[in-house]
Amino acid sequence: MANPTGESESDALRLDFDRRLMLQFRGSVVTSDAGLLAYRELDDALGLTAMASDVLADARTGKNGRHALAGLFRQSVFGRLAGYEDVNDAERLRHDPAMRWIVGGDAAHGSAASPSQMGRFETQWLAAPKNFAALADLSGQWIDLVHGRRPPRGIVLDMDSSVSPTHGEQEKSVWNGHYACTCYHPLFVFNQFGDLERCALRPGNVHSADGWDAVLKPVVARYHQGKVSRIYFRADAAFAMPEVYEFLEAERIKYAIRLPANQVLQSRIGYLLTRPVGRPAHHVRRSHASFSYQAGSWTKPRRVIAKVEWHPGELYPRVGFIVTNMSRPAERVVAFYNKRGTCEQWIKEGKGAIKWTRLSCRTFAANAVRLQLHALAYNLGNFLRTLATPEPIKDWSLTSLTEKLIKIGAKVVSHGRYVAFQMAEVAIPRQMFQEILRLITELRPQPPPAPA
């Protein structure tokens, strides 16, 4: 293709099945991602990219930098938010009108960064130790900005691991028997709003809880700086380890962690494991128990909650144990723990909407950088979902917002003093988009009152 933005100089194509139809290729004046402009407005209102520019160091010297670091950062994050998981699409995106205006600066009337520029930015500049450390902390700093607009009374932290399948000779890509694939094994911590507090990329063959302290402790330290009064923690049985309990107890954090079953635990609730007498019920029969238990590796006894469920048509009960330092009734502890399932849903959203399992670099360091960029894109998308979505779309997932809000087609018309994006009204009408922008405006810092 002679013109990378579209064959705008060629004649229209005719279709034989109906000669009234003409196909005109004007890629330079249309975009399929016009909804990204709402996220750019949110970015400006919260000061997210401005914060990134303050903490990331520009490795370039001299005057050969065509694009500012803030623009390169936006191109990386917003491209992932729109579903472009790596720099393979940068050649086309650099000419896309929406991306050019999101990047800003000279790109608005020229072009954004090329694939080679983006590759160097992500795999070299951001992979430098200081920049990578700043990048890993950035998600938490963004969340602090959001909490400044929406202060929470308490924070619930959910920790879980996931899988990122790999292909080819990628560094530290190892076979994982549980997932039955060659992969990386990233670790995530979310809060109750679905924000990704912190994440880390790990080799594929590590235990699910490997390196938990390096991920969890910085998050706890952030919140202990007077930001919230209560912190809660939930995790599955992979994190049922004495060192985890001891850390949480020392930090005065209430927790509920699933405990693997053993014969001692089963014997403590033997009276609940006898099949109920009489005709089987047509509903689930559920019982709870609470008792003190000390495993051989524990330094002290802890409270354990047991849940026993008899399901219709099943011969044996379903049994689960939870270790906790919470004093609330057993049923409420179980209900609190069960909400941990939303964490798994957020991981699925990251995989589906943001495509954060797409880590295609050869080196582990470059893939670790790209996971952090995916995390920032996820958080930007989630901020708009939780802060600036009108009531009719309040329950939309990130995947739905990507398909219906971000992927709004628009024709771009340039005038002498302004540029108009003529948006298609399909899933998001004008009134709803206007309401999104109004909610974003309310997040901007209010000017100081005029002196009397």
What would the principal axes of the Cα set say about the shape? globular
Count of helix runs: 15
Taking all Cα atoms into account, the compactness measure Rg is 26 Å
Classification by helices and strands: alpha+beta
The unreliable regions are 1-9
Q: Bin the strand percentage.
A: 15-25%
Overall mean pLDDT stands at: 90
Q: Say how many strands there are.
A: 16
The side-by-side strand order for the widest beta sheet comes to 9-8-4-10-11-14-13-12
Distance between the termini: 64 Å
List the helices and strands and how they pair.
Layout: E1 13-14, E2 22-23, E3 30-31, H1 36-46, H2 48-55, H3 69-81, H4 90-93, H5 97-103, H6 115-125, H7 129-149, E4 154-161, E5 164-165, E6 174-176, E7 181-184, E8 187-190, E9 196-200, H8 212-223, E10 230-235, H9 242-250, E11 254-259, H10 263-268, E12 285-293, E13 302-310, E14 318-324, H11 330-338, H12 341-354, H13 364-387, H14 398-406, E15 410-414, E16 419-423, H15 430-441
Helix pairs in contact: 1-15, 2-3, 2-7, 3-13, 7-13, 12-14
Overview of this protein structure:
By secondary structure, this protein is α+β, with helices and mostly antiparallel strands. The chain is built from 15 helices and 16 strands. It has helices at 36-46, 48-55, 69-81, 90-93, 97-103, 115-125, 129-149, 212-223, 242-250, 263-268, 330-338, 341-354, 364-387, 398-406, 430-441, and strands spanning 13-14, 22-23, 30-31, 154-161, 164-165, 174-176, 181-184, 187-190, 196-200, 230-235, 254-259, 285-293, 302-310, 318-324, 410-414, 419-423. It has an 8-stranded mixed β-sheet with strand order 9-8-4-10-11-14-13-12, sandwiched between helices. A 3-stranded antiparallel β-sheet has the order 3-15-16, with no helix packed on it. The chain has a 3-stranded antiparallel β-sheet with strand order 5-7-6, with no helix packed on it. A hairpin with a 7-residue loop joins β1 (13-14) and β2. α2 (48-55) runs antiparallel to α7, α3 packs across α13 and α12 runs parallel beside α14 (398-406). The longest helix has 24 residues, at 364-387. Residues 1-9 have low confidence and may be disordered.
